[in-house]
Specification:
This protein has 1015 residues and is an alpha/beta fold. The chain contains 14 helices and 58 strands.
Length: 1015
C-alpha cells in the first residue's frame, strides 16, 4: 500500500478579536478600533491549503463490499441538508464518492474527508457509527466543521492502527476526550479544537505518550485544567517530533518549563499558540535563553492577563534566530524594549499591546526589514518616535536594501501611550501601509493632505485624541478608501469636513470633539446609513435635526451623537429597529424633546449602553426598558421625566450604572432594586422621591456610588450601609429629611471618598471613628468608573466646597475627598481623630451646634483645600499650625465664639476678614507697611517661628496665596478633568480676594491699628 503523503495546513496563527472604545465584552463585536494582522498578511510558513486526498480517480479495483456497506451505514446516521453526500449510492464504487479516497494499489479506503469547507454545508449527526471500523486501511479521517450535537468522541477511533491524520475540530463533540486515542502510534496530525471552550475536556494527558510520531497537536478550546502543572514536561518528553502546538483557550494555569538543558526534544517545534488561557506565572526566560527552540517561528502567548516577564530580557534572548511572529498582548509584561530587539531580523509581526511596557521605541527597530506588523498600543511608552530611526541612508540601504526604514510595514499600532513630539516623516513614506494608529497619545503638529496623500493603500487611520491639527481642504480627494477613520480632537471645525464624503467604505468613524459648529450635511446621513458599525460625532456644536428619512446601517453597533445642539424629537424607533445589533446609543446633552419610546425595550433588547441624559424629555420612563436584559448603563438624568421609578428595572440584571437624577420623579425607591447585584452606581438625586431608603438596597453589595440627595426621604441613615455596602466610594444623602444620628457603622467604609449628609435633621455627635476612613487618610487615588471592555460611563457629581457648588465629571478619575455634615443639628466637640484624615480635601461642618476648640493637630491635614466651620459655637483660639495648610484655598470660621488673635503669616494671610466675621473676641493684627522686607520670605515655612512682624503682610499675602494656589498646578497638568474645575474656582477667588486686599490696604493706611472682627 502506498503511504499517504502528509499534507500540512497553514499554521493557525490566532486572529485577535478587536475591542471597541465604548463597547462591553459581549454583543458588539462587530465594532473595531484596534488593528491586528493575520498570517496571510506576512506570509505563512506553510503552503496554502490543498485537498488532503485524491478522490474520484480511476482505481484498478473498486472498494470492497464490506467497506462500501460500512460507509453507507455511517452515511445513514448523518443529516445532509445540502446534498453533499448525494454521490454515496449503493450501486456506485465508493472510491468515486465525494470525500472518499482509496489506495491506487489495492482499492482499499484510506481516507474519508467530510470537512465542512465554508460553514454552510454542515452534516449533522448524534454519533459516529462504529461501522467505520471495517475501514482497516484508513489513514485519514476529517469530520471537522460539522454538527454532532454534543456527541462524545468515540473511543473506537483509537483502533485505527494506520491512522495518520485525525481532524474532529469544531464539529460539536463534547465530553471527555477518550484516552484510547493514545493508541494511534502512527498519528502525525491531531486536531480536537472546539468552538465552545470547556465543552470538551481532557481528564489526563497521559494518553499522549503513545503519540510519539505526532507533528501537530491542536486542542483549542478543550479544557485542560485537570492536566496539572507539569503538562509542558509531559508533552516535551512524549512528543519529540512535535512541530506545531495549539492549546488556545484551554484553561491552563501555569507555564512550568524544564531547564534549558532538558529541552532538546523541542528542537523541531515551529509554532506554539497558548493564547487566551489563565496562565499566571512568569515566562521562563531563563529556560528559553540558550536556544532551546532553534526552529521556533511563531509564538502566541496573548490574552493570558497575568503572564509576567521583563520585556527587555524577553526580547533580548538569544534563542529567537528563526522567530517570525511574537504575540504577547494582554499580559503583564513590564520593562523597556531593548536596543538588541533590532537583532530579530526574521521578525514579521510583533504584538506587545495591552501591557505595562515603558520607555521609548528604540531606533534599532529600523533593522527589522521584514516587519509587516508592529502593535504596541495600550502601554506606557514615552518619548518621541525616532526620526528616520536614527539610521543613515547608507546603513539603511545595508540593512533593508531600501532607502526607507521598515520597507514592508503594513500595520503600525501605537494607540493609547504617552508618546509625544511630531510624527516623523518616514511614517508617510510607506506606500504599502494599510493601518496607522497613533490615537490617545501626546503627538503635536499640523498635518496636511500632502503627507497623507502618499499613503494610497491605507484602510485604517487613527489620529484621534492627540494634540494634532489637520489642515485639509474641503475639496481634497484622498487616494485611499478607509474602513476606519478616527479624527477625534483634531481641530477639524468649525465647518463639517466634507472630504469625508469620498470615503465610501467607512465602517468606523470618529470625528468627536473637533469644534464643528455646522449642520450635518445630507450626504453624511447617507454615508452613515450604508455600512458604518461605529459612529461618534459627540462633543461638537453640530446643529439640526435627525432626518426622518435617515436609515442607520443594519450593522451599526455604536451610535454616539452626545454633547451637540441637535434638536427635535428623538430619532424614530422604527428607524432604530433597522439596526438590530445596536448596543450603544448615546444621544445625551442635546435639545431633543418629547417622550421616550414606549416600546424601547422590545425593539432594542440587545442594548448595553443607553444615555438620553441632558435633554428636554417628558413623560414617564417606559417599563419596557426592563426587557433590555443585557443593559449595563442607563442614564436618563437631567430631563423633565415624571411618574415613578419603574420596578421593571430590576429585570435589567446586568445593570452597572443607573442614573435617573435631576428629573421630577416621585414615589418610593423600588425595593426590587436590591436584586441588581451588579450595580456599581445608583444616582436618583434631585427628584421628589419619598419614603425611606429601602433595606433591600443592602443587596447591591457592589455599589461604589449612591446618590439619593435632593429628595424628600425620611427615616434614619441605615446602619447596614456601613456593613453591607463596603465598596462605597461616594455616599450622598444631602437635602432630605433624614433624622437620627450619623451611624458609627459608616466609618467602616474604608474606600469612601465623599460623605455628604448635609441639610438634613441629624442630631447627636460626630462619630469619633470618622477619622478612620481609610481613603481619606491618604491622597486620593484614581477612581475609574468603567464597564467591561473599557467603556467609561459618565458620572457627574456635585460637591459643595470652597463656598461653591462644584460639578465634577468623573469620566476617567476622581481625586476629591470630601466630608460635608453641614446644615444639621449635630452637637458636641470636633473629634480629634478627624485630623488623621491627612488626605481630606474638603471639610464642611457649618450650621450645626458644635462646640469646643479646633484640634491643635489640624495642621496635619496637609491636603485640605476647603474648611468651613461657620455657624457653630466653637471657641478658643485659632491654632497657628493652620498657617501651614499650604493648599487651603477657602476658609470660613465666621459666626462662632473664637477669641484671641488670628495667627499671622502663611496661608492665613491669604484670607480676608470675611472668613472670620461674627467672632466678637477675635482680632487680627494689621501691618505698618504694605511692602515686605527682603528677609521675610522664609518666615512662613519655618514652624519654629512663633512671632510675625507687621511688615510681613505683603510677602505673606503674595507668597502664601501664590503657593496655596500654584502648588496643585503640577497635579493639574496631569489630571486635566479636575484641573478645569480648579481653575474656574481660582478665577472666582482671585477676583474676590483682590477686592478684599485693596480694602484692607486702604484700611491700614487710614487707621494703622488692629481692629476687632466681631459683629
Amino acid at each position: 500500500m502506498v503511504e499517504q503523503a502528509l499534507v500540512w495546513r497553514p499554521i493557525s496563527i490566532l486572529l485577535l478579536v478587536s475591542h471597541a472604545s465604548l463597547l462591553v465584552s459581549s454583543g458588539c463585536g462587530s465594532v473595531q478600533t484596534d488593528i491586528r494582522s493575520t498570517a496571510a498578511d506576512h506570509g505563512s510558513s506553510r503552503p496554502p491549503p490543498t485537498p488532503p486526498l485524491a478522490t474520484n480517480e480511476t482505481y484498478p479495483a473498486g472498494c470492497s463490499v464490506s467497506e462500501r456497506s460500512a460507509l453507507l451505514r455511517f452515511r445513514a446516521g448523518l443529516g445532509d441538508p445540502t446534498g453533499r453526500l448525494s454521490s454515496w449510492q449503493p450501486g456506485v464504487d465508493c472510491c468515486r464518492w465525494r470525500g472518499v479516497a482509496c489506495s491506487k494499489l489495492t482499492g482499499a479506503v484510506v481516507g474519508v474527508d467530510l470537512r465542512n469547507p465554508n460553514g454552510r454545508w454542515k452534516l449533522s449527526g448524534r454519533d459516529v457509527d462504529p461501522s467505520l471500523l471495517r475501514l482497516k486501511s484508513l489513514t485519514h479521517l476529517d469530520l471537522s466543521g460539522n454538527a454532532f450535537h454534543g456527541a462524545a468522541i468515540p473511543a473506537f477511533l483509537g483502533s485505527f492502527k494506520e491512522l495518520r491524520y485525525l481532524d474532529l475540530s469544531h464539529a460539536g463533540f463534547a465530553g471527555a476526550v477518550p484516552p484510547q486515542l493514545g493508541n494511534l502510534t502512527r498519528l502525525r496530525y491531531l486536531d480536537l479544537s472546539s468552538d465552545l471552550p470547556g465543552v470538551l475536556r481532557v481528564d489526563s494527558l497521559g494518553w499522549v505518550s503513545g503519540l510519539s510520531s505526532l507533528k501537530r497537536l491542536s486542542m483549542d478550546g478543550v479544557d485542560l485544567s485537570a492536566a496539572g502543572s507539569d503538562w509542558v514536561r509531559l508533552l516535551h518528553e512524549r512528543l519529540p517530533s512535535l512541530v506545531e502546538l495549539h492549546l488556545r483557550f484551554c484553561n491552563l494555569r501555569t507555564l512550568a518549563v524544564p531547564p534549558a538543558d532538558h529541552f532538546p526534544n523541542f528542537t523541531s517545534l515551529e509554532a506554539i499558540d497558548l493564547s487566551r488561557n489563565h496562565i499566571s506565572s512568569a515566562i521562563p526566560t531563563s529556560s528559553m535563553g540558550s536556544s532551546p527552540l532553534p526552529s521556533l517561528e511563531h509564538l502566541d502567548l496573548s490574552l493570558n492577563r497575568n503572564l509576567t516577564a521583563d520585556v527587555s530580557t524577553l526580547l533580548g534572548l538569544g534563542g529567537w534566530q528563526s522567530i517570525k511572529t511574537l504575540r504577547f498582548s494582554y499580559n503583564n509584561l513590564h520593562g523597556e524594549i531593548p536596543a538588541s530587539f533590532g537583532n530579530l531580523t526574521s521578525l514579521v509581526e510583533l504584538d506587545l499591546s495591552r501591557n505595562y511596557i515603558g520607555g521609548g521605541v528604540p531606533a534599532s527597530i529600523g533593522k527589522l526589514c521584514k516587519l509587516t506588523g508592529l502593535h504596541l498600543s495600550w502601554n506606557n511608552l514615552t518619548g518621541e518616535l525616532p526620526e528616520l530611526l536614527l539610521l543613515e541612508p547608507q546603513k539603511q540601504q545595508q540593512y533593508c536594501n531600501s532607502a526607507s526604514p521598515l520597507p514592508r510595514l503594513v500595520r503600525l499600532s501605537l494607540n493609547d501611550n504617552s508618546l509625544q513630539g511630531e510624527l516623523p516623516a518616514w511614517l508617510f513614506e510607506h506606500t504599502s501601509l494599510r493601518a496607522l494608529g497613533v490615537s490617545s497619545n501626546r503627538f503635536t503638529g499640523v498635518l496636511t493632505e500632502s503627507p497623507l496623500s502618499k499613503l494610497g493603500n491605507l484602510s485604517s487611520l487613527r489620529l484621534d485624541r492627540n494634540k494634532l491639527t489637520l489642515h485639509i481642504s474641503s475639496d481634497w480627494i484622498p487616494p485611499f478608501q478607509l474602513s476606519q477613520l478616527g479624527l477625534g480632537s483634531c481641530g477639524l471645525g468649525p465647518k463639517f469636513p466634507s472630504w469625508i464624503r469620498t470615503q465610501r467604505e467607512l465602517s468606523w468613524l470618529d470625528i468627536s470633539n473637533n469644534g464643528i459648529a455646522d449642520e450635518v450635511p445630507p450626504w453624511f446621513w447617507g454615508l452613515s446609513s450604508e455600512r458604518v458599525v461605529y459612529l461618534n460625532i459627540s462633543f461638537n456644536s453640530i446643529r439640526g435635526r435627525v432626518p426622518s428619512s435617515w436609515r442607520p446601517s443594519p450593522r451599526v453597533g455604536c451610535l454616539d451623537m452626545s454633547s451637540n445642539l441637535l434638536q427635535g424629537h428623538l430619532p424614530s424607533l422604527d428607524l432604530l429597529a433597522l439596526a438590530p445589533v445596536l448596543c450603544i446609543l448615546d444621544l445625551s446633552r442635546n435639545a431633543f424633546h418629547g417622550r421616550i419610546w414606549p416600546d424601547v425595550g422590545e425593539i432594542m433588547p440587545r442594548m448595553k449602553y443607553l444615555s438620553l441624559a441632558g435633554n428636554y424629555l417628558t413623560g414617564e420612563i417606559p417599563p419596557t426598558i426592563g426587557r433590555m436584559r443585557g443593559l449595563q448603563v442607563l442614564d436618563l438624568s437631567k430631563n423633565n421625566l415624571s411618574g415613578g421609578v419603574p420596578t421593571a428595572l430590576h429585570d435589567c440584571s446586568s445593570l452597572i450604572f443607573l442614573s435617573l437624577g435631576r428629573n421630577n420623579l416621585s414615589g418610593a425607591i423600588p425595593a426590587s432594586f436590591g436584586r441588581l447585584y451588579s450595580l456599581r452606581v445608583l444616582l436618583l438625586n434631585d427628584n421628589m422621591l419619598s419614603g425611606e431608603i429601602p433595606p433591600s438596597i443592602r443587596g447591591c453589595s457592589a455599589l461604589e456610588a449612591l446618590d439619593v440627595g435632593g429628595n424628600a426621604l425620611h427615616g434614619n441613615i441605615p446602619t447596614w450601609i456601613g456593613s453591607d455596602l463596603r465598596a462605597l466610594r461616594i455616599l450622598r444623602l444631602r437635602s432630605n429629611r433624614l433624622s437620627g444620628e450619623v451611624p458609627v457603622q459608616a466609618t467602616n467604609l474604608r474606600f469612601l471618598q465623599v460623605l455628604d449628609v448635609a441639610e438634613n435633621n441629624l442630631t447627636g455627635s460626630i462619630p469619633e471613628k470618622l477619622g478612620s476612613l481609610g481613603s481619606m487618610r491618604y491622597a486620593a487615588k484614581l477612581y475609574s468608573p468603567h464597564i467591561n471592555g473599557g467603556a467609561y460611563f459618565r458620572l457627574s457629581l456635585t460637591v459643595y466646597m470652597k463656598g461653591l457648588s462644584l460639578q465634577f465629571d468623573i469620566k476617567t478619575d476622581f481625586l476629591v475627598t470630601s466630608i460635608d455634615l453641614s446644615g444639621n443639628m449635630l452637637s458636641g466637640e470636633l473629634p480629634r481623630s478627624l485630623t488623621n484624615l491627612s488626605g481630606l480635601v474638603s471639610l464642611d461642618l457649618s450650621s450645626n451646634l458644635l462646640t469646643g476648640t479646633i484640634p491643635d493637630r489640624i495642621g496635619d491635614m496637609r491636603q485640605l483645600q476647603s474648611l468651613d466651620l461657620s455657624g457653630n459655637y466653637f471657641s478658643g483660639g485659632i491654632p497657628p499650625c493652620m498657617a501651614y495648610l499650604s493648599f487651603l484655598g477657602f476658609l470660613n470660621l465666621s459666626s462662632n465664639n473664637f477669641s484671641g488673635e488670628v495667627p499671622a503669616g502663611g496661608q492665613l494671610d491669604t484670607f480676608s476678614d470675611a472668613s472670620f466675621l461674627g467672632n466678637p473676641h477675635l482680632h487680627r493684627a494689621l501691618f505698618q507697611s504694605s511692602y515686605p522686607r527682603d528677609d521675610v520670605g522664609t518666615v512662613y515655612i519655618n514652624k519654629s517661628v512663633e512671632t510675625r512682624t507687621d511688615d510681613s503682610f505683603s510677602m505673606g499675602l503674595g507668597f502664601g496665596f501664590a503657593f496655596g494656589l500654584l502648588a496643585p498646578f503640577t497635579i493639574m497638568l496631569i489630571k486635566t478633568n479636575w484641573g478645569a474645575v480648579y481653575f474656574q474656582f481660582v478665577d472666582h477667588i482671585v477676583e474676590k480676594l483682590s477686592k478684599h486686599i485693596k480694602c484692607m490696604l486702604w484700611f491700614y493706611a487710614r487707621f494703622g491699628a488692629a481692629q476687632p472682627l466681631g459683629a
